[in-house]
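Hello,

Our lab assistant flagged a job as stuck in the queue for most of the afternoon. It eventually completed. Since we weren't sure the result was trustworthy after the delay, we are filing this so someone can double-check. Below is the sequence as submitted and the structure that was eventually returned. Let us know if re-running is recommended.
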Amino acid sequence: MAESNGNGNGQAKKDPVLVIVQLTGGNDFMNTLVPYNEGAYYDARPLVHIKQEDVLPINDDLGFNNVAARLKKLYDQGDVAVVQGIGYENSSRSHFRGMDIWHTCEPDKISTEGWVARLIRDLDPEGENPLTGVNIGSGLPRAMAAAGVATTSISDLDTYGLMTKLEREAERNRNLELFKRMYTPAVGQGMVMDYLAQTGNDSLASADILGPIPASYTSSVEYGGSAIAKSLRDVARIHTAGVGTRVFYTNSAGWDTHSHQPVDHPRLLSELTGALDDFMTDLREHDAAEEVAVLVFTEFGRRMKDNNSGTDHGSGGGAFLIGEHVEGGLYAEYPSVKPADWLNDEDLKHTFDYRGVYSTLLEQWMGVDATPIVNGTYEQLRPFSQTMLG
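-- returned structure --
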């Protein structure tokens, strides 16, 4: 884990670390945190609903889907803040544009910089450590892209250290090419080429640092076999190695449940929540949990009514903040599920701006000024019982 100089009492002061988990496709928040006593919820979803007997209540109104029992366990321990109704005005139902808005904090125009890249620049303005920001997965999220900001992207930590220099360079080039294909249509070739010209090279140097990590890591935790479990295990391995990473980013795919939702969504939710529980257990075993806060987010919620097989793109979703110093509980307001309150006759209204969640993490946890990163000033939550900043 990253450490700074002593704090005056003989103990090293730990630097705060942010782990971001993106649920790509649009998680159905209503089937994650279920309004199990609301008749309107069951009326709108004759097929795609969670039965009352399959809910793990947290109060008289809301309860977790029972497949998320391990998240409920963390919640009961006081380590999970549920941010209800997260979103923004005029929510986009496009996956690409929706994620672009979440990644850049620019809902009204196309931006050239990601919010996480701005954070990395703030944390490491001279770009001294290519591992300040690490993405676990193929490609590079738009959130971590900005000209002059170097980040490292790793698809598989176990093979990363075994690659030859040429193989590492080939993987880096594949990631950059994937980024180019994804984002050139939206922002133009000029911005993309400017970015590609100034980033990626430092990631080659990081391979020498990351190579020995798998062999030196030991843990009693047996993660599941899902992709998100593997990614979070890689986060744990890098974090506990103490290479100075301050921001981790990873992705869980498959949450676009237009069809087969009664089968697919429970599986995804079970895999995710199990992986998060294993991750926190692993960090505690290594005395590396107190400096970590986890943000789990998705680009939008799903519509009120089911389509007989799944649910379509909507708004008014939810997010989770997880950590030992999180003051667990419900934050913001669960959107009204009453038909008279639906947006456009089919969507939940958002109750809290996503940039307020970012601002909360940036200022209260990471200790940086949020305004230039999120492009404005937004209401913040108070989800931390303690931080690493004091």
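-- support follow-up --
The delay was a queue issue, not a problem with the job. The result is valid. The chain has one domain: 13-374. Confidence is low (pLDDT under 50) at residues 1-10.
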